[in-house]
Amino acid sequence: MSTVHTPATSTSTQTLQPPTGEQRPAAAPTPFSARVAVGLVGMLLASLLAILNEQVTAAAMADIQGAFSIGHDDGSWLGALFEAANVATMVFAPWLGVTFTLKRFTIAAVLATMLLGVLCPFAPDLAALYVLRVLQGVAGGCLPPMLIIVALRYLPPRIKLYGLAGYALTATFGPALGTPLAALWTEYVSWRLAFWQIVPLGLLCCVAIQHGLPADTLKLERLRAFNWIGFGTGFPAIAMIVTGLLQGDRLDWFDSGFIRAMFGGGSLLLALFLVNEWYQPVPFFKLQLLKRRNFTHGLTTLLGAVILLVGMAAIPGQYLARVQGYRPLQTAPLALLLAIPLLIALPLTGALLNLRRVDSRWVMASGLSLMIATCAMGSFMTSDWIRSNFYLLQSLQIVAQPMVIMAILMGVTTGLPPAEGPFASAMFNTLKTFSAAIATGLIEGLGTAREHFHSSMLVDQLGNRALIASQSGEGAASTADLAHRIHEQAVVLTSADLYCVLACIAVALLLLVPVLPVRIYPPWSTHPTASK
Fold first, then answer.
1. Average pLDDT along the chain
2. Is the CB of residue 268 less than 8 Å from the CB of residue 484?
3. Which of 92, 266, 293, 326 could pair with 330 as two cysteines, CB 3.0-4.6 Å apart?
4. Digit-coded pLDDT (tens) for 276-319
């Protein structure tokens, strides 16, 4: 129980205080006030801005490619390069934020994200657009990690869970808004708004952060202890693996030498990065935090939970588009049904977990059980399903997602000193976005494999019993109709298979709940086990 607090007083850690600089704010904590609350809201909006920029441009990518006359293969790199830079940057953003102060660093990252977004529609060629998207991925990747750091530093224990609910909002509400906003801009205004929509929100959050957050002193002396080995191995490692995950399905996975190089080289560099971080006195990842059972359980569950969230959001949209011919505007109500109630469900879940008698493990188990039920119902889908058939499944997610995400955040952050906030934020946010890339690769790769399998099985069964029409015209029409029906049924069966896979992941996470985490109490509680 005392292992979390003991290092703050140990001689070995004291010698690291000058280069890290994270202990000084903890020594003289800033009182929470309405002004600080405004700054925290600004940080929340900055994190939401990064998520919306990522999700809306991804949802509007078909229109963006059309506007630039970009083919599918070249267009796929717009998303892959952005995500690779975005995920890799999150490893190092907390360290840089502490060095240049959270206030200055976040405002600079917001302004850079906005400026690059404004420039994207004016890119003169594809190469310039690639460069702009990579730079915007770097700038956007700096924003989400800052929110956890300021929440741990400034929020008093009584309302800390509500602040974490705000962070959970960016992980659930933000992605759910991607499709509706993309549909709004591309259908009724202009595809350029997919890039420019962040400007008003960015200006607002910059004003709130500048006005609300206290001004820390620059800690430029930390630059002398910059972890160059960690940066030189970690950034390319994560960028290469993410690129492999997002391009794997298009390039046929390990049959491609490029994908083998991405995974092989990335895995080797990642191993070197983790070894270096373990022995590094001023690391980007403090791997020693994994000795805390709840922290390890939180990261493990986060990996599976993000795969569940991404998968459950992707399957209905892909099915409706490919089988029923829905455009993003027609699937938008399905996303809004989940997004809007989360504004209420997340704070309510925070209030529930803030009760001392409530065990967060039971809350998480309940949420995972609802996810299993959702997947089980989805596995019975047929080609007759339309948007309304998914409403019940989405309604269950309104309750399930806050339970799981909030319980994870509570387990990861409870008992964590503000000085360790940057380390936890780097590990948590990097794994969250990395898990989203894994989920995309899993859905695409497994979906393609299962669709090919079901198509082959259906054609084989049909070949044993089909009757060929005698007239050529009728035969051609029948063949075209038959091919469409086979494709349709293969997509339905593949979607059902993906729901079964997600159900298995949820069951595995549920089985971890009674084994790995220990009982914790709300941050305001003085119970001794609150620091576990």
1. 85
2. no
3. 326
4. 999 888 889 988 888 888 889 989 999 999 999 999 989 998 89
pLDDT > 60? residue 61: yes
pLDDT-based confidence at residue 28 (cuts at 50, 70, 90): low
Nearest to 351 by CA among 164, 153, 173, 156: 164
Task: Name the residue among 262, 261, 271 with its Cα closest to residue 241.
Answer: 262
Answer positive or negative: Cα dihedral of 267, 272, 273, 278. positive
Residue 274: per-residue pLDDT: 94
- What sections of 101-220 are H helices per DSSP? 102-119, 126-141, 144-154, 160-188, 193-196, 198-212
Question: Which residue ranges form the domains of the chain, and what is each CATH number?
Answer: 30-210 (1.20.1250.20), 228-281 (no CATH), 289-464+474-532 (1.20.1250.20)
Which amino acid, 466?
A
pLDDT class for 120, splitting at 50, 70, 90?
very high
Interatomic CA distance for residues 18 and 405, integer angstroms? 35
- CA 143 → CA 21, 35, 334, 372, distances in Å? 20, 20, 28, 32
Q: Which tokens hold the place of 398?
A: 């309104």
Give me the DSSP letters along 249-297: TTTTGGGSHHHHHHHHHHHHHHHHHHHHHHH-SS-SS-GGGGGSHHHHH
Span 388-408, pLDDT tens digits: 899 999 899 999 999 999 999
For residues 1-29, average pLDDT: 40
Q: How far apart are CA 192 and CA 194, in angstroms?
A: 5
Predicted TM-score of the model (pTM) = 0.86
Mark 56-67 as b/e (b = at least 16 C-beta within 10 Å): bbbbbbebbbee
Is the separation of the CB atoms in 306 and 435 below 8 Å? yes
> Could you give the count of Cα atoms lying within 13 Å of 72 in the half-sphere of its Cβ?
3
